[in-house]
């Protein structure tokens, strides 16, 4: 018997039609089996031109659709997505190796995102402004930006995309989605759902490919806005393209989250929280609590217990219910994590547990914990995006804040304490877009999410996320019959 046929994802979804990509095809590799399971097409610059034209053509009618009708379509899409949860979760697991049960949960969160935003469609209100001159009526309206490019990452394709896609469509924009080249299949499947629900041709478009496709999209003069989730290096190129075309950009980038445990914390909750913060999703999450800051009086105890739990984590088939941690999503990430571990050892960090590949099959890295990591070490400063935790002791509240803020990142962080006053003091001082208190890695559709410093700018989710995809227009009406001096500014 020959090898099983590869799933065919070589078509692009453009203008409501499925058409072959003009560029070379490439494989999607199952990181658990280290085998290609699907083939994907590459969109060329000509394909991108065609897609931008389709999205721009669709924008006129989509933006003019009544908000109730638009909301009904978004609710219908959420219902259809919910029905497809199991199938899509399995596709994502084949693509990125994340646990099937985790992918199911994240797609469920995407459904919630769409329902929240659909409910906001008729609540994008403007304001009437009271002016000094009572004979002027002044008011604002919020309008869609136009054609929006959405660039999604490989670690949580549908869930992360929903943070962008739901508000962009709710606001009346048309969209072009480019998923990561490592995880294109589930996003192409979303195109089929949009088509079945009855979205207009060109409202949602999906193109696939790697860096060249992304560059063609982000530099295209017909694009009105870009939203990107990914790494700082790629963000610089995208920001330069956006700047050349003078268009808005939102970016959700990396993190180096500090998970701070004070000596008065409830350790029965804090230690599982530390484990969840770094080993869930194999550490491949931008909000990972990859730095564990522990007050000196309990440092040895906490590190010992976290290490014990790390050693007990069950690695294996991400489709199996009993598996707790899957592989790295692709070979390049697997090799990057191992290099970061080697750097930590070379810098003098104390390897407490893990530190090497877990199996010969699959791109698995052992749950790894380094102790006595100083703030200057590369492991304390650079994002690993893998199951590698850096533990650092601190003396007091002031030092904890100083260490926590001592990186270029500021996406998310957490703290564990029984002192309510301390909780508020420390949360206020942390340079982070999200702060969790006595919890970690918890999300809500209503809660805004985004970073500071090199973790990006702009917000996703919540009302704040919706507003990113709108622009404000001001209208002023003179109610008087007065003819004013044409050479004097009216006020």
TrEMBL record:
Domain Aldehyde dehydrogenase: 18-474
InterPro entries per record: Ald_DH/histidinol_DH, Ald_DH_C, Ald_DH_CS_CYS, Ald_DH_N, Aldehyde_DH_dom
Keywords: Oxidoreductase
PROSITE patterns for this protein: ALDEHYDE_DEHYDR_CYS (PS00070)
Protein name, UniProt field: Aldehyde dehydrogenase
Native species: Amycolatopsis pigmentata
Lineage: Bacteria, Bacillati, Actinomycetota, Actinomycetes, Pseudonocardiales
């Amino acid at each position: 018997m020959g090898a099983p046929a590869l799933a065919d994802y070589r078509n692009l979804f453009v203008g409501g039609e499925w058409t072959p990509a003009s560029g070379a095809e490439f494989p999607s590799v199952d990181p658990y089996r280290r085998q290609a399971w699907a083939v994907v097409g590459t969109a060329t610059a000509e394909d991108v031109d065609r897609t931008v034209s389709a999205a721009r053509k669709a924008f006129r009618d989509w933006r003019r659709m009544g908000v109730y009708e638009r909301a009904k379509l978004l609710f219908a899409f959420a219902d259809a997505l919910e029905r497809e949860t199991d199938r899509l979760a399995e596709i994502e697991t084949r693509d990125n190796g994340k646990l099937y049960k985790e992918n199911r949960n994240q797609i469920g969160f995407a459904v919630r995102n769409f329902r929240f935003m659909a409910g906001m469609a008729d609540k994008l209100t403007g304001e009437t402004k009271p002016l000094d001159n009572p004979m002027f009526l002044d008011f604002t309206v919020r309008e869609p930006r136009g054609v929006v490019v959405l660039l999604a990452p490989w670690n949580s394709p549908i869930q992360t995309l929903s943070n962008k896609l739901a508000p962009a469509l709710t606001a009346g924009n048309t969209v072009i989605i480019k998923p990561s080249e490592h995880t294109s299949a589930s996003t192409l499947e979303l195109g089929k759902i949009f088509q079945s629900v009855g979205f207009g041709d060109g409202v949602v478009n999906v193109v696939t490919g790697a860096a060249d496709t992304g560059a063609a999209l982000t530099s295209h003069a017909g694009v009105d806005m870009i939203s990107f989730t990914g790494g700082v290096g790629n963000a610089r190129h995208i920001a330069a393209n956006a700047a050349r075309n003078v268009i808005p950009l939102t970016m959700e980038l990396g993190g180096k989250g500090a998970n701070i445990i004070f000596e008065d914390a409830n350790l029965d909750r804090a230690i599982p929280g530390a484990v969840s913060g770094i080993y869930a999703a194999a550490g491949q999450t931008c909000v990972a609590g990859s730095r564990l800051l522990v007050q000196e009086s309990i440092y040895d105890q906490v590190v010992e217990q976290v290490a014990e739990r790390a050693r007990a984590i069950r690695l294996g088939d991400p489709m199996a219910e009993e598996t707790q941690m899957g592989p790295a999503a692709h070979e390049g990430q697997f090799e990057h994590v191992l290099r970061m571990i080697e750097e930590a050892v070379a810098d003098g960090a104390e390897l407490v547990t893990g530190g090497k590949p877990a199996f010969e099959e699959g791109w698995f890295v052992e749950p790894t914990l380094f102790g006595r990591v100083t703030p200057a070490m590369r492991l304390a400063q650079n994002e690993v995006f893998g199951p590698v935790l850096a533990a650092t002791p601190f003396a007091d509240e002031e030092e904890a804040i100083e260490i926590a803020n001592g990186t270029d990142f500021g996406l998310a962080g957490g703290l564990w304490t029984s002192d309510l006053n301390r909780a508020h003091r420390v949360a206020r001082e942390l340079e982070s877009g999200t702060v969790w208190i006595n919890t970690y890695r918890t999300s809500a559709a209503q809660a805004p999410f985004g970073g500071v410093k090199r973790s990006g700018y702009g917000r996703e989710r919540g009302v704040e996320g919706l507003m990113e995809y709108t622009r404000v227009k001001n209208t002023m009406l003179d109610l008087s019959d007065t003819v004013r001096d044409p050479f004097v500014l009216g006020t």
